[in-house]
Amino acid sequence: MTASSPVHRTGLATSLAGPLPMAPSDWGALALLGLIWGGSFFFGKVAIAEIPPLTMVLTRVAIGALALWVIARARGVHLPLNRRLMAEFMVLAVIANIIPFGLIAWSQQHLPSGLSSILNAATPLFTVLVAQAFTHDEKFTVGKLVGVSLGFLGVAVMMGPALLGQLGGHQLPAQLAAIGATVSYGFAAVYSRRFRHLPPLGIAMAQLASSSLLLLPAVALIDRPWLLPAPSLPVIGALLGLGVLSTGLAYILYFRIVGRNGATNISLVTFLVPVSAILLGALVLDEALEPREFAGFAIIALGLAAIDGRPARWVRGKMG
């Protein structure tokens, strides 16, 4: 499907009218994205043991861009690029990839992955604030504020007091870096709305290609990766997982949800990332689930229901 196909024009007319309510298929796409991004913290932790942060980020976005280019060629998807659009993709690359990926990669050298998940869950809060300031159709609602607060609380409960007790102290710079990444993600989610008239595959490919071009000179100057030891097989596998799954395919889902459902709804994925990581640990590694994790799951579910709004409308209808 190309950018000028009739199907795409229909999707454009719908999405530009404003964010749509989350349909079951949208919640499914969000859950799948949370599952894919749940693995990114694991892949990143493996890769950062041998690869400097900037080189890891460049490798991640370059592999993702290459994978999406192959898919786009096979499907006949192309973008009507011009100078203005290319400049906008460069901006998106900086705030959606280079800044947050770099900050997260650096912070992962100093923070446990559970604490990173808690700080990452602040993304919806900053997205709601940015959307309030810069959009006309994603303003504050009581449901959004209650839902975002419950979601963040649920992540904190799920991770437990031991991790919360690590906030501050000598890890404060790394924690601030992780929070800085969430602020950048909030701006990126709102900025991404301007690309709603383009196919998600094309947006993701252009964003990652732009990130690769911008990062290449810095990596060559600072890290000089040709002087680094060859990575081990586990690190190569982690980089492939980061690039193909957690970046390339993930951003196709990301831009699909942004185009249909808006910036605030896509940011909710950060509530689902730690949930998916814990459930994967239980299913794949046979890790035991603790009562606080079930409590956290329930609080997050309440938060998502508050943002969705349909349960509350159903209750009001029954009472009326």
TrEMBL record:
The keyword Membrane applies. The chain crosses the membrane at residues 27-48, 54-73, 85-106, 118-135, 142-160, 172-191, 203-222, 234-254, 266-285, 291-309. InterPro entries: AA-Vitamin_Transporters (IPR050638), EamA_dom (IPR000620), EmrE-like (IPR037185). Keywords: Membrane, Transmembrane, Transmembrane helix. SUPFAM superfamilies: Multidrug resistance efflux transporter EmrE (SSF103481). It comes from the Bacteria. Pfam families: EamA. This is ABC transporter permease.
